[in-house]
Design brief:
The complex is a heterodimer of chains A (about 325) and B (about 240). Chain A starts with a strand and ends with a helix. Helix content of chain A is about 25%, strand content about 25%. By secondary structure, chain A is α/β, with parallel strands linked by helices. In chain B, helix 3 packs across helix 4. Chain B starts with a strand and ends in a 5-residue tail after the last helix. The chains are: A alpha/beta (about 325), B alpha/beta (about 240). The interface between A and B is large, with 94 and 79 residues. Strand 17 of chain A pairs parallel with strand 15 of chain B, so a sheet runs across the interface. Chain B: Belongs to the ETF beta-subunit/FixA family.
C-alpha cells in the first residue's frame, strides 16, 4: 500500500501544479501511514527529479525512455498502471491538466479505479474514503465516496499550499513495458507558447474582454501581466473574435482556473465567464459600467476606463 | 460510416444551482435542462459529416427518463436513432462501461462526445471508453476532418495546439470550434417524433464512486470599491491586505 503521484514536467522542470500534487500525495500518505512515490515520464535531469523530495516524495520512479518524451495519455497510463502495481499503490494523485486528464481516464479504465476530478481538499478517511470536489463548474461541491480498491484523485490548482523542506527524493530508474498500440497517434505539428507560465498553473492572471476594443490594445493587458509576473487570459467573445487564441479563453467552455489573483478588465461577468474563474482566491474587476454583474462576485472593484486604469496599475506594480 | 454521439442532459449554463433534502439532492425545480454544450459541438460535427459524406448517427444518453427531451432535440438536429441507458449518470466509470457495452455491439467508426459534462466536469468518460474498447481517445478536439479511414485532428494543449493523424475507429472529446451549434428546424422536430428511441437497462449496477452530500461555496465578502482616481491603491491592497502579490 502506498501513494503514487503522477508528476509532469514543463520545459524540463516539475510543473508547479505537480509540486502541489506531490505535496498533496505526501499528506495523504501520511494520513494513511504509508509513503509517497512520484513517477515522472520522459527524459529528465536527475537533480530536477530529486526536488520532488522538497514536496514530500520519498522516491521518484523515472521512466526515462525517450519514446515517453511526447505527452501521450495512452502510453503514460500504461506506464503509471505498471508503476501502481509494482508499488502496490492504493491511491494515485495527479494535478488536473490536459495530459493528466487523458492519462487518468485511461488509467481508471485499466485499474477499474474510482476517479474523482477537481478535488479541492484532503480526503476524509474516518469512514471510508471521501473527498470534496468542485462540480457544476465551481458553482458547488460534492462530497464523493470512492468505493473501489484503487482510487485516482485529480486535484484542482490551489487545493493545497506546499510547505517545502530541504529533503531530496531518491531517483530510481523505471523500465516499464511499452505497448506499440499506445503510439498510434501521429503528431504532425505542435504550436505551443514557450517561456510563459502555463495558464492553468499561473498564480496570477490578468484577463480582458471586449472592453479592450481590439487585439491591438492587448499590450495594456500584457504590460500589467508582465509587471506582476502574471499570465494573460481572455473572455469567450475575445477568443471567438480571434483577438486572442482559444487556449487563453477562460470560462464555462474554456479553461477553468483557480489562481490566487484574477484581474478582469472590461469583462462584464456573464455567469458562464464566472463559472471558469470564480474559484480564484481574489478577484479584481475593472469596468466602466458600475452595473456590471461581475462586481457582485469581486473582492475589489474599480469603476473606470480600462485604457486609463490599466497603465496606472502597471506603473504602480512596476514600482513595487 | 457509423457515428455514435454520446450526450448529457445537464442544467442550463445560467442555472443557479441549489440543493434539497439536507443537501443530498439537486433541486430540480425550475431548472431548464439542455444538451451538454460540448456534446452539442460533437453532434453538430457529426451532422456535418453526415451531410458531407453520408453517415448514420446514433445518439446515446446514459440518463433517466427526464433526459428524453434532450434526446429528441438531438434527433431533430439530425441524428437517426437514439438509445437511452436507463440509469442515473453519477459515476464516470459506470457511464463509460455502459457506453462501451453498446459500442461493442455496433462497431462505430467514430464515438464522439463533449470534452466534459458541465455538471460533474470530470472530462474522463471518453478516455475510459477508449480504454475499455481498446481504441485511441483524443480530447479536447477543436477540429476533425476525415480522409478515408484517417482522421486529421487538431487538439488543444496547454499554451497551444497540436495536429494529429489517427486511423479510425476513435473516441473523441469535442469542444469549440469543431462545428457551429445547430438549431433544429420544424421538419427536423416533426421527424424526430417518430425516430426510434430505444431504452435499455444498464449492464451493471455497480458504481465506483457516489456522492454523499453537496455543499454551496461560501459567499464572497462585499466588493471593496476603489475610486478610479486612486487606482494605484489597488496594488498596495493586493500586497498588504489580500497578500496575493
Amino acid at each position: 500500500m502506498s501513494v503514487l503521484i503522477f508528476a509532469e514536467l514543463d520545459e524540463g522542470k516539475l510543473r508547479k501544479s505537480s509540486q502541489e500534487a506531490i505535496y498533496y500525495g505526501a499528506k495523504v500518505a501520511e494520513m494513511m501511514g504509508t509513503s509517497a512515490t512520484a513517477i515522472v515520464l520522459g527524459e529528465a535531469d536527475e537533480s530536477e527529479l530529486a526536488t520532488a523530495g522538497r514536496f514530500g516524495a520519498k522516491k521518484v520512479l523515472h521512466a526515462g525512455n525517450a519514446r515517453l518524451n511526447e505527452a501521450n495519455g495512452m502510453a503514460y497510463a500504461t506506464v503509471v498502471a505498471e508503476a501502481a502495481n509494482q508499488e502496490g499503490a492504493e491511491v494515485i494523485v495527479l494535478a488536473k491538466s490536459a495530459l493528466g486528464d487523458a492519462m487518468a481516464a485511461r488509467l481508471a479504465g485499466k485499474l477499474k479505479a474510482g476517479l474523482a476530478a477537481n478535488v479541492v481538499d484532503l480526503p476524509e478517511l474516518s469512514n471510508g474514503f471521501r473527498v470534496k470536489r468542485s462540480i457544476y463548474t465551481s458553482k458547488a461541491f460534492a462530497f464523493t465516496e470512492l468505493k473501489a480498491g484503487k482510487k485516482i484523485l485529480a486535484i484542482k490548482k490551489n487545493t493545497i499550499e506546499p510547505q517545502e523542506t530541504d529533503a531530496t527524493a531518491s531517483v530510481e530508474s523505471f523500465q516499464p513495458m511499452l505497448n506499440d498500440s499506445d503510439f498510434v497517434l501521429k503528431v504532425t505539428s505542435t504550436e505551443k507558447a514557450t517561456g510563459d507560465v502555463l495558464l492553468p498553473d499561473a498564480d496570477l492572471v490578468v484577463s480582458a474582454g471586449r472592453g479592450l476594443k481590439g487585439p491591438e490594445n492587448w499590450g495594456l493587458v500584457e504590460d500589467l501581466a508582465k509587471a506582476l509576473g502574471a499570465a494573460t487570459a481572455c473572455s469567450k467573445p475575445v477568443s471567438d473574435l480571434d483577438w486572442r487564441p482559444h487556449h487563453e479563453h477562460v470560462g464555462q467552455t474554456g479553461i477553468k482556473i483557480s489562481p490566487n489573483l484574477y484581474i478582469a478588465a472590461g469583462i462584464s461577468g456573464a455567469i458562464q465567464h464566472l463559472a471558469g474563474v470564480n474559484s480564484s482566491k481574489v478577484i479584481v474587476v475593472i469596468n466602466k459600467d458600475p452595473e456590471a454583474p461581475f462586481f457582485k462576485s469581486a473582492d475589489y472593484g474599480i469603476v473606470g476606463d480600462v485604457f486609463e486604469i490599466l497603465p496606472r496599475l502597471t506603473k504602480a506594480a512596476q514600482a513595487l | 460510416m457509423k457515428i455514435l454521439v454520446c450526450v448529457t442532459s445537464v442544467p442550463d449554463t445560467t442555472t443557479k444551482i441549489t440543493f434539497t433534502d439536507n443537501n443530498t439532492k439537486l433541486n430540480k425545480a425550475g431548472v431548464q435542462y439542455i444538451t451538454g454544450p460540448y456534446d452539442d459541438y460533437a453532434l453538430a460535427r457529426a451532422v456535418e459529416l453526415k451531410e458531407q459524406q453520408g453517415a448514420t448517427i446514433t445518439v446515446l444518453n446514459v440518463g433517466e427518463a427526464d433526459a428524453e427531451p434532450v434526446i429528441r432535440k438531438c434527433l431533430a438536429i439530425g441524428a437517426d436513432d437514439a438509445i437511452r441507458v436507463n440509469a442515473e449518470p453519477t459515476d464516470a466509470y459506470f457511464v463509460a462501461e455502459n457506453i462501451a457495452a453498446i459500442a461493442k455491439e455496433n462497431n462505430y467508426d467514430l464515438i464522439l462526445m463533449g470534452r466534459e459534462s458541465i455538471d460533474y466536469n470530470g472530462g474522463q468518460v471518453h478516455g475510459i471508453v477508449g480504454e475499455l474498447l481498446g481504441m485511441p481517445s483524443i480530447s479536447p478536439v477543436m477540429r476533425l476532418d476525415l480522409d478515408g479511414d484517417t482522421a486529421k485532428i487538431v487538439r488543444e494543449i496547454e499554451g497551444g495546439h497540436e495536429d494529429l493523424e489517427a486511423k479510425l475507429p476513435l473516441v473523441l472529446g469535442c469542444q469549440e470550434p469543431i462545428a457551429e451549434w445547430k438549431i433544429p428546424n420544424m421538419r427536423g422536430i416533426m421527424t424526430a417524433r417518430t425516430k426510434p428511441l430505444k431504452v435499455v437497462q444498464p449492464v451493471s449496477q455497480e458504481t465506483l464512486t457516489s456522492v454523499a452530500a453537496y455543499e454551496m461555496p461560501a459567499p464572497r465578502g462585499a466588493c471593496k470599491m476603489i475610486p478610479a482616481d486612486q487606482a494605484e491603491t489597488l496594488i498596495q491592497l493586493l500586497r498588504t491586505e489580500a497578500k496575493v502579490i
